[in-house]
Fold this sequence. Notes:
- The protein has 100 residues and is an alpha+beta fold.
- The chain has one domain (3-99): Winged helix-like DNA-binding domain superfamily/Winged helix DNA-binding domain (Arc Repressor Mutant, subunit A).
- The protein has 6 helices and 2 strands.
- Helix 1 packs antiparallel against helix 6 (83-99).
- The radius of gyration is 14 Å and the shape is elongated.
Amino acid sequence: MKPGDEFIAFLEVHPxxxxxxxxxxYIDFLKTMSAQAKTMEQFSQLxxxxxxxxxxxxxxxxxxLKLISRTVVGEQKFYYISPMGKEFxxxxxxxxxxxx
Length: 100
């Protein structure tokens, strides 16, 4: 199956991810976590033009969709991409690259 077809099939199983697939911001947000977990402070540094409350809402919504997860070390909360988030992002990137 072609990467684009794989991504469409994935979205058919997970239609709740379709709006995210249309947003370069959400894709970029997930990409920031693909290499390393981040704290809210790090998100604020990476996306300085976005208000803190909006970042918290973005993180909350991605957690509810199970695309990211959270772990607590001491008093610090770290957010990282979940296996579902990795699968979504990998399929998205492959589909996009196949169109180039």
